[in-house]
Amino acid sequence: MRLILVMGPTGVGKTSFGIRLARDLGGEIINADSVQLYRGFDIGSAKPGPGELAEVPHHLVDVLDPDEDFDAAKFAGLARDAAREITARGRAPIVAGGTFFYVRALVKGLFPGPPKDPALRERLREEAKDKGRGALWSRLQDADPESAARIHPHDLVRIVRALEVLELTGLPLSRHTGLHRFSGRGYSTLGFCLYLDREELYGKIDARVDEMMGLGFLEEVAGLLGSGVPRDAKPMTSLGYRHLAAHLAGELDLGDAVRLIKRDTRRYAKRQLTWLKKEPGLIRLNPSEHERAAALAGDFMSMEP
């Protein structure tokens, strides 16, 4: 089965690029953004709007409630099913999004880690409540610095899983993934990596945050919290949402919250760029190179097996 991948740092234009590519090829989009999976998390995740969703079929958008448990393995299963259905219709499956670990899990598989231990997870979550997430992340940093470098200090779900693997197996998560080397590849892929000059990318990120605020990002977060979504729900701890939740709780001035959203988004983009440099086989393209991408993708999809 063939997959086209559209990757790149946040703010580079993956959504519009993927939609145009899907339109040119007769394809359908499989979302690989972990926040766009959740209902109600629209503005802050830069979720495609109604017009974009109507123009090209999208899969794995608005499929989860904020409190639902979800991980890379579940994503890989749902995305694989979607890719099969798209392929069976004679259309091109295009995976687009910035949660690269999800993409890697889909394309290359995951190591067979230990099953979750509910009691251990609850103990770790209670520890995070008592001492703060930062303390838990610091413990992970001491025990498994490689994994800690890939996990944000606010991402409690992934911190808990990394510590759970360590306690259950005696080996750090990074060691397991190194041994596995994501070698379970089951697809033929064509991967595009969108890029911009660093300063241009950062300028677009800052402008997008301002645009989100103008579209009602603060009101979206207030509405989610008012509807009962807790601050420690996985999507609420993501970029922008956690900052505005802190403002609404009286912990941050609004100007400071917006400034931190921009700063942390730029830092996230920098980490994504570092990750992408290590990923082999991606074709670097400027987001304006639609025709070249369509030609390459058309040739790829029409190749004899």
Description:
By secondary structure, the chain is of the alpha/beta class. It folds into two domains: 2-110 and 183-208 and 277-302, 3-Layer(aba) Sandwich (Rossmann fold), CATH 3.40.50; 118-180, Orthogonal Bundle (Histone, subunit A). It is built from 14 helices and six strands. Helix 1 packs across helix 14 (290-302), helix 10 crosses helix 13 (254-277) and helix 12 packs antiparallel against helix 13 (254-277). The longest helix has 24 residues, at 254-277. The chain starts with a strand and ends with a helix. 36% of the residues are buried. The mean pLDDT is 91.
Key terms:
single chain; about 300 residues; alpha/beta; Rossmann fold; Histone, subunit A; 2 domains; 14 helices
